[in-house]
TrEMBL record:
Highest taxon of the lineage: Eukaryota
Gene3D superfamilies: Amidase signature (AS) domain
Keyword Repressor: no
Annotated source species: Medicago truncatula (Barrel medic)
Ranges annotated as spanning the membrane: none
EC identifiers of the protein: 6.3.5.6
Protein name from the UniProt record: Amidase C869.01-like protein, putative
UniProt keyword list: Ligase, Signal
Tagged with keyword Transmembrane helix: no
Signal sequence annotation: 1-31
GO molecular function term, any single one: asparaginyl-tRNA synthase (glutamine-hydrolyzing) activity
Amino acid sequence: MASACASSFFQFLSITLLLVTLSSMLSTTLASGISIKEATVQDLQLAFQRKQLTSRQLVEFYLKQINIQNPVLKGVLEVNPDALAQADRADKERREKAAGSLSRLHGIPILVKDNIATKDKLNTTAGSFALLGSVVPRDAGVVNKLRKAGAIILGKATLSEWSHYRSNGAPSGWSARGGQGKNPYTLDDPCGSSSGPAISVAANLVAVSLGTETDGSILCPSCMNSVVGIKPTVGLTSRAGVVPISPRQDTVGPICRTVSDAAYVLETIAGIDPFDKATIEASKYIPKGGYAQFLKKDGLRGKRLGVVRLYYEFGNDTLLDKTFKLHLNTLRRRGAVLIDNLKIDNIVEIFTDQSEQIALNFEFKLSLNKYLKELVASPVKSLADVIAFNKKHPKSEKLEYGQDLMVQAEKTNGIGKAEKQALLNMTRSSQNGFEKLMKRNKLDAVVIPLASFSNILAIGGYPGVIVPAGYEKDQPFGICFGGLKGSDPKLIEIAYSFEQATLIRKPPPLRKLEV
């Protein structure tokens, strides 16, 4: 035992020294004395322009950080073996092309969640051994847009297996392939299925990442890991090539350290994709000139923000109570008009209704079977095959966590009367609840603590942006701004203005990393 403790201490010491050495060695390479750690996309692009940094050096830095921290944090599932070659190509293009002709994400490494297809040497498995070795027909629509922008696909981020639609018994952030992801602030629950993207960005294993959300899977990990997450209006970003749960609720969005970086990523990936029909209808919401134009420090001025008090009932004058009271005052001081003490008329009905679960069950089976059949090659071709695979490989898939959600979904048989009623119930709940609240009070957005509003946003396909809001001991928490479909630009304005007024985010503490 004493030997193990000594070994652990020297391991911690060497890791700490290496972290400090790397940070100090590279901090001078950036403009204005900014370290690569916590550097924004704009910081990195400025360093590129001033020839103080190359994409190869940046990729090498992140690869070292992944080697050091990932054995504990488990935010990265696979590293792209072609990442350095992509970095070299970006450096060459930067030398040859005119200044200002390249996109904001050109030469910037990005991690994508492992349910987002890449047609390269990386696997796309949703964290399951059942899809290991499967061959996708093409890049996911969002990955195609990233490549065209010159971004570097650094690798795949971990997730809750099957985007947390395998079992209610499986821990958040766990997958058979990736193991148990850990929050870099607490080494505890990272929350949500897009845990790996949030862990990796928070711990500076990469600057920007892509996650997906069906219900809370961008907002919750962003909230818990002190990063910014944008859950876009459903259809604003393509879901083609994404291992699905629900075409009605699934959305792909950025997880980054700043609102500006998230806006740049959203600007890059939003738009029409012929492989996802929903993007055609949603393209009407995309503003001319993109999303960066909404990064305004005075973006809160004149905005009408609704405060639904039900979501603020922490009790006993807790730190959360005090913090969010301060934040509401900050919003007022920045020029927002707060409409307080609001109620959603049918909130009890929404909380108790089982319609979302009914819908997700049949949608998961139908959409996953369609996805699997379109693969060029795959060990499994249906949800039934996945369930059978898990039973056949109980150790690798940790069958003790169960697969109750998959089993429930497999029992469904298309869209019958009950399923149609569930869809109708959710439409009516959204119209009579959130939409009525927004329109009756002429709100630009609601402001909600934590990710507690994710269900309301999910069932209606509405957008949300979450921003770091504080820390309770080491545990981060966020504040969320949600709005009606197409209000993404307005939410970015509001979130950016709040972020710039508070500048709350801080990097995770250096702590003992025990593998």
